[in-house]
Amino acid sequence: MIKKVAILGSTGSIGQQTLEVIDLFSEKFQVLALAGGRNIELLEEQTRKYRPGIVAVMDPERARELRLRLGDLPVKVLEGLEGLCEIARLSQVEIVVMAVSGVVGLLPTLEAVNAGKTVALANKETLVAGGSLVMRAAREKGAIILPVDSEHSAIFQCLLRDREGISSLLLTASGGPFRGYTKEQLRRVTPREALRHPNWEMGRKITIDSATLMNKGLEVIEARWLFDVDYDKIQVVVHPQSIIHSMVSYIDGSVIAYMSVPDMRIPIQYALSWPERWNNNWPKLDFFALREITFEEPNVKNFPCLDLAYQAGRIGGTMPAVLNAANEVAVKLFLQNKIGFLEIPRLIEETMGHHQVISNPDLGDILESDQEARQRVKALAK
Ligand SMILES: NC(=O)C1=CN([C@@H]2O[C@H](COP(=O)(O)OP(=O)(O)OC[C@H]3O[C@@H](n4cnc5c(N)ncnc54)[C@H](OP(=O)(O)O)[C@@H]3O)[C@@H](O)[C@H]2O)C=CC1
Ligand SMILES: CC(=O)[C@@H](O)[C@H](O)COP(=O)(O)O
Ligand SMILES: [Mn+2]
């Protein structure tokens, strides 16, 4: 049976790798819709290759330009957030791959879930900001959310056997490019250095998050929502080789680990093939070539973002949305060389400190808190 797919964020790292998977199994997929932020050159290329009936571009000016460029094709070009939402709820689409970066994914994800779609979710910021809303809507509408994030795909697969008797989820972290650095060294690191992840080639925002350990903090909150497990039962283990992507520990002392080469096409393929497994010709794990696999505790003194995320998650309500928004702005400022690396956690902590938490927030509360946090970080950074 052909799976009908829409990809939001098709021009990004996850989006392009999703299309690689689709290329490999082209007889199994039909691409009905694509969406990107600003990169209309690539979106045009993708549209000419996959011939979706609808594409969307977040930036309205770029959308108008793409409309002109694609004038010879029978394709509708939508724009803005509403364009992304329209694609997410398209009646013919069965699987929505949510691969945009940032909380901008929240509304389209809610649309897809409310329309009862299967969502292959890479975009972790959505669950951080709006996890309770998204999971509640998924339960009510019977929508399936399949994790694409490597750690969560790993846990999902570890849990295929036993969902009872879990003692903890063990999320592995590479430790990023600055593992072992002192505070003094961290003060001087540059965006260029932070963008050199030891094991993964990813978009810029998530790569900086990996360097600060905020990525792992966001993933802790993501795991809390995907697997309905308390924060006390989610532990982060630094494993610099990124071979074990996460583990589940059980009350009888058993630990089930998921391993693979660090290649995002594998969890992307699994989310698209689930509940089946499909053969591919990519490099497989060679145990005799693995020199060592090691583990250590995260250094939360030098990398406070991980603790800030646990704090925000435990406080709950609108606080995780504030953590996420503050982080998105702070990362942007760091990438623009406007603040130093250690300013990222400082700005997030101060912004969280100013926030009046709203418990059991609705969508409006979450979006307002997100906006308020963005303004606050900009003011604090001046
Ligand atoms: N890359 C990876 O290996 C992994 C990524 N993830 C998660 O997946 C998501 C995507 O990451 P990644 O692919 O690395 O990111 P990229 O930066 O490579 O790509 C982001 C995608 O989102 C689009 N986009 C960015 N901003 C907006 C916006 N404001 N509105 C609409 N679209 C926008 C971009 O469009 P354009 O480029 O056209 O402007 C692009 O298509 C993130 O949430 C990340 O945390 C999770 C695990 C691994
Ligand atoms: C590939 C993936 O899922 C990323 O989230 C990755 O895990 C980032 O690496 P860190 O472990 O350094 O955060
Ligand atoms: Mn991950």
TrEMBL record:
Catalyzes the NADPH-dependent rearrangement and reduction of 1-deoxy-D-xylulose-5-phosphate (DXP) to 2-C-methyl-D-erythritol 4-phosphate (MEP). Coiled coil: none annotated. It catalyses: 2-C-methyl-D-erythritol 4-phosphate + NADP(+) = 1-deoxy-D-xylulose 5-phosphate + NADPH + H(+). Residues 5-131 form the 1-deoxy-D-xylulose 5-phosphate reductoisomerase N-terminal domain. Pathway: Isoprenoid biosynthesis; isopentenyl diphosphate biosynthesis via DXP pathway; isopentenyl diphosphate from 1-deoxy-D-xylulose 5-phosphate: step 1/6. PANTHER family: 1-DEOXY-D-XYLULOSE 5-PHOSPHATE REDUCTOISOMERASE, 1-DEOXY-D-XYLULOSE 5-PHOSPHATE REDUCTOISOMERASE, CHLOROPLASTIC. NADPH binds at residues 11-14, 37-39, 123, 125, 203. This is 1-deoxy-D-xylulose 5-phosphate reductoisomerase. Keywords: Isomerase, Isoprene biosynthesis, Magnesium, Manganese, Metal-binding, NADP, Oxidoreductase. Residues 145-227 form the 1-deoxy-D-xylulose 5-phosphate reductoisomerase C-terminal domain. HAMAP family: DXP_reductoisom. 1-deoxy-D-xylulose 5-phosphate binds at residues 124, 150-151, 174, 197, 210, 215-216, 219. The keyword Membrane does not apply. Residues 259-375 form the DXP reductoisomerase C-terminal domain. GO terms for molecular function: 1-deoxy-D-xylulose-5-phosphate reductoisomerase activity; isomerase activity; manganese ion binding; NADPH binding. Its EC number is 1.1.1.267. GO terms for biological process: isopentenyl diphosphate biosynthetic process, methylerythritol 4-phosphate pathway involved in terpenoid biosynthetic process. Pfam families: DXP_redisom_C, DXP_reductoisom, DXPR_C. Mn(2+) binds at residues 149, 151, 219.
